[in-house]
Amino acid sequence: MRFDAVAFDLDGTLYPTSALYLRALPSMLAKARRLAAFNGARQRIRDMGISDESYRRDPPADGKALRALEARLAAGPMGMDPKEAEDYIARSFYGYVEELFARIRPFRGCASALDALAEKGMRLAVLSDLPTDRKLELLGLSGRFEAALCSSDSGFLKPASEPFIMLSERLGLGPERILYVGNSVRMDALGARGAGMKSALVSRRHRPEADFTFWDWSRLVEYALL
User: Fold this and answer.
1) Hey, is 66 helix, strand or coil?
2) Does domain 5-16+106-224 have CATH number 3.30.110.70?
3) What is the pTM of this model?
4) What is the domain partition of the chain in residue ranges?
5) What is the mean pLDDT of the segment spanning 65-94?
């Protein structure tokens, strides 16, 4: 086999985000201004991780430090001080999982594909920009992955190469031995390529930026096991 491991993004990759958006819409409308501030802060961190040399020389030490930076960037637009913003983000965006995921299910064929890969000896992992453990549990997918990592623990967010390098180091594999599966061209396909990994995208149409595109999960199994 050309790969020793298959790693996955989580949101929009293991389950359809349309289901999440439908459930989250009423709450997100009520929090629209603060959600925009939160997303704006994360985009600034993504951009700094790619092009800001001072940030790259001295990034946040871990996920806790990155979340503190995120709160400082979001605080003004949220109309809060940084500690208030950090508490609000933890409660309203990171911790708002139980209600949203109670009825969300993985993509059809996803669980059986994971089992088929594991049965053939493929190592499985998750790398997401958001916390993974409780989501995987609520999706019924916990216990299937050797590692479930959050990008922010590297001090960076995708598409910076550091989260992918962290994944490679955790698995003890060269990046060329890992296939990374996601749903975003920029975050996942190009991010993985920048770290030396091959990529696959969950998409109904061909995306030339990825090495492989699929919608039927059985096709991913076939590709990964070639």
Assistant:
1) helix
2) no
3) 0.94
4) 5-16+106-224, 19-100
5) 95
